[in-house]
């Protein structure tokens, strides 16, 4: 085989290897109830873009990730939260509890309230908007059975699908 004929297949193989190296799955651990049919329903409805970040492949069932590196991470099947005094916002009929314990690092964790199983998203606010993330994920998450709702949601804490306060 001539060097020229050999160069073409080698170049093609190199390109395939290079591209596959760029799209390595995001390594995540599945939540306890990730294999539920409800989480499967959420997974097949996840959007291609969340908070302006493109979807990434993950290695665990009931998960999603967006951005390179991942700026938004979703786990379906996490423990359903009990009553709380934490801040709760409602987006398109989906209530979210906001955990601000890592706010100093620009990381926020939001967990659905009144949905079983629950969904948790972690957002790196330095690279993606948490508000945009819950707006973009509201439709997918709304397929989870509603078993309750936040009682401390004020009108200013209720957002429509564009992230604008309703009312």
Quickly describe the structure.
With 167 residues, the protein is of the alpha+beta class.
What does this structure look like?
- The protein is an alpha+beta fold and 167 residues long.
- It has one domain (25-159).
- The radius of gyration is 19 Å and the shape is globular.
- A nine-stranded mixed β-sheet has the order 1-2-3-4-8-7-6-5-9.
- Helix content is 24%, strand content 26%.
- The protein has helices spanning 3-22, 37-44, 130-141; strands at residues 49-50, 53-56, 63-66, 72-78, 88-91, 94-99, 107-113, 118-124, 158-159.
Number of strands: 9
Name the shape in a single word.
globular
Termini separation (Å)?
73 Å
Please provide the ordered H/E string of secondary-structure elements.
HHEEEEEEEEHE
Question: Residue ranges: pLDDT <50 for 5 or more in a row?
Answer: 5-21, 162-167
Order of strands, widest sheet: 1-2-3-4-8-7-6-5-9
- Major sheet description: 9 strands, mixed
